[in-house]
User: Fold these one by one.
Assistant:
Number 1:
Amino acid sequence: MIIYNVTCSMEKGLVEEWLKWMKETHLPEVMETGCFIEYKMLRLLTNDSDDTGVNYAIQYTCENHETLERYRSQYGPELQAKTLEKFGNSVLAYRSVLEHVE
């Protein structure tokens, strides 16, 4: 299994609007591509002294690298553009790929 991890960072004041949009719009659109089996949305915990914003990780699980590459080439650019249009540079996203090890 391959996990496509997207870590998003934003100011506290944006969290409510971002979460609503993610749950109602973005996550359903990503899952409708048929590329992912499931997703998990997690909030990163930090110490108060490190707290410069709020960070979330969304982990999308897919079967293999080919499926992920299909998502990245056919669907990713358009969905990322929608996010950028909605939030501009107020939400920073960092993407990484992980492999499940048993």
Number 2:
Amino acid sequence: MSKTQKTLLLVLMAASMVALNADTQVMAPMLVTIEAEFGVDDSAVGAMMALFTVVGAVVSLLWGYFADKASRKKLFVFSVALGEIPCALTALAPSWEIFFALRILTGIGVGAAFPLVFSILGDIYDENERPMASAILTTAFGLGAIVGPVLGGFVGQVSGWRLPFVLAAVPNVPLLLAFWFLVPEPRAAASEEATRELVEAGILYPKHIRVKDYARLGRVPTNVYLFIQGIAGTIPWGAFFFLNKFLETAKGFSIGQATAVYMVFGAGMVVGNLAGGKLGELVFRRSPKNLPLFCGVTTFLGCFGTLAVVTLKGSIPLLSAAGFLAAFFAAMTGPNMRTMLLDVNPPEDRGPIFSIFNLTDSLGTGLGRWVAGMLSVAVGLSGALAISASFWVICGVVLVLAARIFPGDISVLKERMAQAAREMRAAR
């Protein structure tokens, strides 16, 4: 691809992910209203959002497998449409059961898109470009987490809870049309140093994933470490689904004030993603070993900042500033985790590895939402959020330990790609 085509593809994927991820958070500011209308409590909502995440992640395993078998361009368009149509139809839900089912269908679309975008990213950007490109995609997820609550908190306050679901879904209609007509099909291994010129010469990368090959994914030590930290590290993010309600009920804010503070928290996450990608790029160029260490430190800082927000008694400006810093440091880890996965897995494994990573992340997020919902009923939202945030300590420890094995896994991948290049030349 030309530089213009690569940029266009990244921009369209990022914009679609903003809209799609807005779907996941659009109901957060309207929880009190929705729970009252359907006669449910936080535990029911927590269970629904856990299934929303986990079912989508399980389906993404199938999408991850076909990312190496079928057109990723077509799979991406289909998966986003699969998420947005039920999201728009949620506005018509007459009962909790139908609302529940439509939310799960939206979760399937969200989960299916995740392994595709990072599989595509790995094939159009090389190892030096990936941290920033990954940060842009990860930032798109964060922006979606802001746009959704803005729609729910401000539009929902005026028009009721139904309209925001439609507004969250509509932007992806023109975005998907543009993606379909303007974006070329990405080619496998086009960004790897050993195979780039061969792919540009029209020689197809010969490797493909088979079901039995999934076992080898677990034999890459970096994969295992990142799976473990993914489960622990996403539990707090899952619990933040209840942050708006916490600000309303525990801090005494109005819906508008709570949404404004949430937006500042989200802004910290967005800036942290971008800063994390840029700093991660610099750290990686200096020494690959330093990247997991960098992520471990920022995760610890995010944990302590979040605990301060939960326990802090103060004004809206003070809570907003503390929330911004907490989210800023916590979010730095995300784009670099995805970069590390790209750096230790060959092209045919990237769709599958990101589908599994999405599953472990989703298990953590879903578990976080479920546990936070249950703990909210048992000990209150303040205790629920504090307990959930403490899981970042586990995440940070695992990341620090990963520093000793990450460089070796990069070397193994480079040798595998060199062997693949030799096979491609022999097959000319």
Number 3:
Amino acid sequence: MTVTNPGANAAAEGDRSRVRDGGRTRELVLEGAMAEFTAKGFAGARIDAVAERAGVNVRSIYQHFESKAALFDAVLGDSVRHRHEHLVEAMAGLLDGSGDPATLFPLFRGVLADNPGWVRLMAWKELSEDLDADVDDFFASDDRRRLYRDEIALLDAGHDRGHLPDGLDSDLLVLALTALAAFPWFVRPLTMLLTGQRPESPEFLARYDAFLHALGRAITGSTGGSAPVTTTDDPVDPRAHRRLRLLGRALDRAGLAGAYGHCSIRLDAHRFLVTPPHPLRVLTTQPGVVVALDGPLPDRVGPEVVLDRELYRRRPDVGTVCTLDAAPTGALPAAGGPAVLHGGDESPADPAGAAALAAALGARAVLVRPGHATVVAAADPAAALALAEEPGGAYGVDPARAQRLWEYRTFGDPEAEPIV
């Protein structure tokens, strides 16, 4: 058993600090601010809480944003711009004659309402505008007007090519599509009363996108095939995506994830599902990323997922892998317990390093690396959460206790599974 070199730890911390400088710091702050504002609204959000979520200090935030109001405007402004730029690009592909115009309807939902908290914040911002204000005084008016004009122009071109029926004024169609996209989240209680489902749940999203596509076909007269935005060529049970998000947010609630943690769950003998490369705290309804046990990694995963893949390859008993941002202070494994202490500096992003770390873990469940990430390999998400909370425990995970802890850590989560 070896102990990590303190000098190497300091160098690693210096490298991380440099990564966080400049544009990366701004990106982390915006991600943390989005999570804080969507959780607590503008009035309840605190700058120190944003700093904690982002993994930066308060001074760093004020170096980029002069006030909470400026930060709020930047969060919404960046999000509006990115979403509508993506929407314009996707609309151009649909209305050039090669796509099905009916998919415009679920497309707007998928792009503009992928984050229910953001929908509520945007609605609050719109409703708080002065009723007597001029259009030039509205929030992000110049950027928004430019993007809306691009969307209207694309619909006008679609009319000219005969891809859209007469009588659908382009500006009013953009307004209607935007309303359809956001309304279930704006009136969340009504949605739940009518459907019995949370609007952010994968089950509701699948139903609603299929409904929007059918509505689009009825309105546009399209005879194209039914292919809502939520479907893929390689479908994954929506419950797997939800379980993965629940685990990620539970790890964050327990204070274990940090800004760089991630988790994954096995789908079958050939694939696993991993959280997207964002802090686990900001996960809303984003799907996980499917990774094959063989072949190159997808673009939308972090390089450290190489270790997850190595563990799934070597250990058929492993159904869940969690990588925590840093080893808990003083969390040393007990003799004969489920954890092993390892002081090497191997990188989980390097195939050779991942193989060495997997070998160091062996048949145990927790690899404790002082000064580096702790890795948990367990049969299921509940067991992984329990082991992450107590990596130095003298005993393995009792399934009943792990389930109790799972219910405790996921209580209040918008996607929490009902207790039966």
